[in-house]
Known about the structure:
The protein is mainly β. The protein has one domain (2-324): Beta-galactosidase, Chain A, domain 5 (Distorted Sandwich). It contains three helices and 21 strands. The chain has helices at 79-82, 210-214, 296-301; strands at 12-18, 28-34, 38-43, 49-55, 58-59, 89-93, 116-125, 128-141, 146-157, 162-171, 177-178, 181-187, 197-200, 202-207, 232-238, 245-252, 257-264, 270-276, 283-289, 307-308, 313-324. The strands form four sheets. An eight-stranded antiparallel β-sheet has the order 7-8-9-10-21-17-16-13, with no helix packed on it. A six-stranded antiparallel β-sheet has the order 6-12-19-18-15-14.
Amino acid sequence: MIGDVANLDQLASATASVVSDGPAAGCRALDLRVWEGIDVRLLPDRGFDPGAAWFRGVPVGWTSAVGERAPLDRPRDMDWIDAFGGGLVATCGLRNVGAPSEGHGLHGAFSHQRAREVRVERAVEDGAVVLRASATIAEVSALLDVHLEVQRTLTTRTGQGRLELVDVTRNRGAAPEPAPVLYHVNVGAPVWSPGATLSLDARATHPRDEAAVAGAASWGRAPGVEPGAGERVFEHEVAPGAGGWASATVTSPAAGIELTLRWDAATLPRFHQWVHPAPGIAVLGLEPANCSVLGRAADRSAGRLPILEPGEERVTRLEVLARALDDPGRPR
């Protein structure tokens, strides 16, 4: 197939642009499109997070009512939620995850950082055309000597429903720094709709509060839209499989696809689930993390706050895999 085309753009293209209208006006975008793979819109001015994404024309992420918008300059308290556009992945951290804590707002400020050194490489590997996009994202506070830096790489390819995300996080500051992180992977309709199921190898499940307790018996089934419903949050103790990777799979008869999230449990040992079935929301959040969702003070008190020493680095990895239910033999 590759030898039959005059220009690889026919099979795999990367298009950079600047949004000209609406709440995201002036923000950069990078659209990766691949034949028979996962197409994804990357957002360099929102932490280089994957925004909208599709597999064979089916939207596999979730877009909130906010949609794409520009980053906030200094998000505090609950500001994060007002600028939460959804997207396939919204990265939470790097200095706080969950409830506002110790002067840091809900879910931290990572997704409001503007990436630099954005670049794309295209290569032919094992008969597929591979697009590999990378960038540098930093959280810096000169007065507090905080300098956390992330080298992020995202990869998609032709012929496979497979999107890979690899982050190398370094503490370039002179002092130990808390560095919690959570990958807020968001799935909406038509994938997360009545009839869809979530499966994972959970050794135990912990509802966050009474609202979650009420839904504890049905966390693995898409509830459909429920007027007046609130959010439900669970933490699952997921058993890693081969190679130390854990996984969670959404099977959607309505969309005709299966969507699997895999992550390296060595550096992302915790897993949270967010379900919000209210009208106009109807979302499932799959959230590999190295921390709780209670904020850094709670993790510090529990002796579980992730810390990076000066010069230390960590590598976190996750993959989103998609396949058509009527094509079970296709490589994933």
